[in-house]
Amino acid sequence: MKSYFVYVLRCADDTLYCGYTDDVTKRLETHNSAKGAKYTKARRPLQLLTSVEFSDKKRALKCEWWFKHKLNRSQKLKLIKEKTIKETFEQELLAKEKG
């Protein structure tokens, strides 16, 4: 079964970058090369802080969007430190579905 990942990078300027991929190692190499995302090109070198695995692509993309748009920096750092990104995302999604 194929896996999909949401990953978080720390940029050289101490900002965070969140993305989605099916190969974290390859994507980090791309980000640290001249072929990375526009945002990360000027902020190298990049350090992988965490990655979260999903078996469903749609769920991974939803988690990426949620992480980028619904959390502030301190919330993001707390979830990274506690290694609870996926669990917190799933709880939020479940609560939203229940209304």
UniProtKB/TrEMBL annotation:
InterPro entries: GIY-YIG_endonuc, GIY-YIG_endonuc_sf, UPF0213_domain. PROSITE patterns: GIY_YIG. Belongs to the UPF0213 family. Residues 2-78 form the GIY-YIG domain. It holds the Pfam family GIY-YIG. The lineage of its organism: Bacteria, Bacillati, Bacillota, Bacilli, Lactobacillales. SUPFAM superfamilies: GIY-YIG endonuclease. This is GIY-YIG nuclease family protein.
